[in-house]
Design a protein that fits this description.
This protein has one domain: Roll (PH-domain like), CATH 2.30.29. Helix content is 28%, strand content 36%. It contains 2 helices and 6 strands; from the N terminus they run H-E-E-E-E-E-E-H. A 3-stranded antiparallel β-sheet has the order 1-2-3, with no helix packed on it. It has a 3-stranded antiparallel β-sheet with strand order 4-5-6, covered by helices on one side. The model has no long low-confidence stretch (mean pLDDT 86).
């Protein structure tokens, strides 16, 4: 004779997951905005991060500091969450992400769009 099958959810784990999701959501919400300006006349890239709760961080990169531009990738094809971005290789050996993942730039989920960004930037830097 079959036994009665009884299972009960774990409220503590459910609460922990909800609190964790809320915390991640709050971090993304207060993360602020990032503005990228590529100025071919002044031959520089300016990246400005404005925090929702105040404060601004600014990075200026001259075209002469950039030794290469490639495409970076974050995510998995299997879960359909993919973000592409540009990676600047700098003369000092560092790499700098441009149109950084997690900032939700329009078109960042399409590799061909980001490839067009790469070609456009390289065109600016070679003229």
């Amino acid at each position: 004779m079959p036994q009665t099958w009884t299972m009960q959810s774990r409220r503590g784990r459910q609460t922990a997951l909800a609190v964790g999701s809320l915390a991640v959501g709050l971090v993304l919400m207060v993360g602020g905005t990032q503005t990228v300006v590529v100025d071919p006349i002044l031959r520089r890239i300016v990246v400005e991060d404005k925090r929702t709760l105040g404060g601004t961080k600014r990075r200026e990169i001259g075209f002469g500091e950039v030794t290469g531009v490639s495409i970076g990738y974050l995510g998995k094809k299997s879960n359909f969450v993919q973000t592409y971005y540009l990676v600047l290789r700098l003369a000092n050996g560092q790499e700098y992400p441009l149109f950084a993942p997690g900032r939700f730039f329009p078109g960042a989920s399409d590799r061909s769009t980001v490839e067009s960004w790469r070609r456009r930037l390289q065109g600016y830097m070679t003229t």
